[in-house]
């Protein structure tokens, strides 16, 4: 029900800066569905541009108890105004119950010792934003949480947080959840409702905010990755009992809302979530000593050999590409570090130092949104599936190719979660892949490294592969 902002927030600035580096786009070919069009994001035109409060936006109409009247509260209150505006006009026909404004709004400073109690608890040292079901109250920390989120995810990152918390109010007023509803269902629905609202903003319908579908939406998605659940064993997860979702869970729920409607959000339940998760590993396993295994392996020749064997087993190509641990030169394609595919020689060239660096586990404390061994392995896999497309005679140079590549990479990774693969996917691997899709984009790029502008669409294509098969990738991205 809450979105905790960890103290290490300030360390993600380097990762956030990377989000502006993936905007190269060349439009060729076509996608079958507008949803999978490389020039669009959630059905809207993909474009960079200003994201934030509109010039001349009206002043907030609400007030918050305990407010200091500063910019953090003004932004939060303006978001509440916008959310009420949206849901009051988009309720009938989609949701049961009756819409009504939230009863109470409370601002507090988590650095202060003189905060009011909200929802039966104190707020000192609670850098957070939350909705309280018992008394229909929404509260946020103006001292650390809102300013920190604005600094590293932009003002629209803050609006996205408020939209998620308002999503819990939507649940309550539409009678979608009750006390015994699993926390994961509540959180996934709220992520989805946030997506529905932010699509309206991105469609230029909000009188208060603007959101670009390129870099602006990328930063909102980065925030969703950042607030993912930590990796746990199944026993630890059962003991905690309050799973909010992996990065893949949270982004997929958000994308359902952004690309769909409130009806689809209301339909999210444990059966739908489990179907969406498929057979992908959700929990950490144990090592030989009985301790939770971290799931990451060192990037070396042995691991890459196992990866190639797995991919050959999954796809059984007539002419499997060869692996070279040297980048090499290629007469008919550009180099794409740390992994390249050369059609002329049917070779995947690896820059080992660069690949090792990308595959070394890092997190926000080290200035990276999220990375691990599958950040690197998904990149190599993407070059492998270019060889499959080459064998099939599909074009290798277009943004449609880029999304087809992401989709086929998703297919490969889904198959690597099945028993019998020489290299098995572990918990957290898909989160590493989607983080790379957002900050680098190589997994969703063509043979020359050209990618689709919107991180939203790159991740959507990868997710389509996780939940589909190779034939569907070729049909969707033809």
UniProtKB/TrEMBL annotation:
GO cellular component terms, alphabetically, are: membrane
Record GO terms (molecular function):
metallopeptidase activity
Instruction: Give the matching InterPro entries.
Output: Uncharacterised_pept_Zn_put
Q: Which GO terms describe its biological process?
A: proteolysis
Subcellular localization: Membrane
Q: Region (Disordered) spans which residues?
A: 47-70
State the membrane topology.
Answer: Single-pass membrane protein
The answer to whether UniProt assigns keyword Mitochondrion to this entry is no
What span is annotated as the signal peptide, if there is one? 1-28
Task: Recite the UniProt keywords alphabetically.
Answer: Hydrolase, Membrane, Metalloprotease, Protease, Signal, Transmembrane, Transmembrane helix
According to UniProt, the name of this protein is: Putative metalloprotease
**Annotated organism of origin:** Mycolicibacterium fluoranthenivorans
